[in-house]
Amino acid sequence: MAFKQMTAAEVSKKVINKADLFILDVRNESDFNDWKIEGQNFKFLNIPYFDLLDGVEEILDQIPANKEILVVCAKEGSSVMVAEMLSEAGLDVSYLKGGMKAWSEHLEPVKIGDLNNGGEIYQFVRLGKGCLSYMVVSNGEAAVIDSTRMTDIYLDFADSIGAKITHVLDTHLHADHISGGRQIAESSNATYWLPPKDATEVAFEYQPLEGGNVVTIGHTAINIHALYSPGHTIGSTSFVVDEKYLLSGDILFIDSIGRPDLAGLAEDWVGDLRETLYTRYRELSNELIVLPSHFMIIEELNEDGSVAKELGTLFAENHGLNIADETEFRELVTGNLPPQPNAYQEIRKTNMGKITPDEEQQREMEIGPNRCAVR
Q: Taking the CA of residue 2 as centre, how many other CA atoms within 13 Å lie in the half-sphere pointing to its CB?
């Protein structure tokens, strides 16, 4: 039987379409348990590559003959060798092109909706990392929000729809992934916006994103209002776009809320987090569609692959928004923190402009799942 490659884009379609897939992951057990490809109808078998050096005969009875099979490793090489052995044993099998590194970097663009005065808003779903970024487009101009370091996809996408990127915004100083905001702004000669309270140590020029700012995209008024919403970081800022969409950054997710500890100030910032979620957000329209900057579990994806839900629905369903007792809320947030993101201090320093790691170092710094949330 032949074996072939499967791209991260093809795997993404299977995730969104809830397709069946059997994944043989040949990374070490600890790496697999920490982070793997998620899909609602995916089945997994984790056998480290070194256990398969003498052949795959002993695991053939654990691999289904009636499902599509994908072999996965960190960078590709080991999965190619195992896929070849499985092929020689008579199985129709694929390997993941570029391995988990490619999976971590793939972005899937999804159109969220149209704007009132013409234009659209798009979400870029980074399934392998749980990151979400956005492009707001109107009258041939575009704003990019919370971009990843894979900047080409935003530049190419804007070109493909005939739009020029004129503004780039980050809702906060990110700690779990490297922002491509400054690079996109430099490439496009666009204005880069960052909340000033998160920018006290940055080593670059930026425009301060503060309450009362209005950023206009195109000739039509698509107003992006800055809503100061501290809690995840001291400068975290939400955007209300077109009076219809709430870009909540890492403050509020679909199934969880933001963690306040990545600057080492959980006890100090938990009160700000509660104030944002329980007071500031309560003053907003329940009909706003929440568009967060991350998701935590695959079940947060909608049928079209987007991650979005009305604010009123989240007030009804999200546990983190329904803890009446403030002490209980504090205990949930500060006593239930997940492991901190991989290399998060180095990522923060990179986003401040204090260090400039090369591309391979940046890849290594970002390896692992999204850990911005508290459930």
A: 2
Interhelix angle for 181-188 vs 152-160, to 10°? 40
What's residue 345's pLDDT? 86
State how far the Cα of 166 lies from the Cα of 142, in Å rounded to an integer: 6
Place of tokens 């425009």: 207
Torsion of CA 116, 286, 252, 143, to 10 degrees: 10
Which amino acid appears at position 144 of this protein?
V
Instruction: For residue 200, give the nearest of 233, 249, 166 by alpha carbon.
Output: 233
Structure-token match 């960190």, residue found: 74
Token pair, residue 162, equals 């005939």
Residue in the block written with tokens 């070490």: 28
Amino acid (one-letter) located at 320: G
**DSSP 8-state secondary structure symbol assigned to residue 252:** B
Q: Is the pTM of this model over 0.90?
A: yes
pLDDT in tens, 295-322: 988 999 999 999 999 999 999 999 999 9
DSSP reduced 3-state for 182: helix
What CA–CA distance (Å, rounded) separates 155 from 144?
10
Q: Which of 73, 127, 185, 311 is catalytic?
A: 73
pLDDT given at position 62: 96
Q: What Cα–Cα distance (Å) separates residue 50 from each residue in 26, 34, 79?
A: 8, 19, 11
pLDDT(256) > 60: yes
Rounded Cα gap, residues 215 and 247, in angstroms = 14
> Which pair of structure tokens corresponds to residue 147?
């971009």
Query: Residue 221 above 50 pLDDT?
Result: no
C-beta of residue 165 within 8 angstroms of C-beta of residue 142: yes
User: Which pair of structure tokens corresponds to residue 356?
Assistant: 């400039």
Per-residue pLDDT of 199-219, as tens digits, reads 999 999 999 988 777 788 875
Told to judge if 73 belongs to the known catalytic residues of this protein, a careful annotator would answer yes
Phi, psi of 261 (to 5 degrees): -110, 0
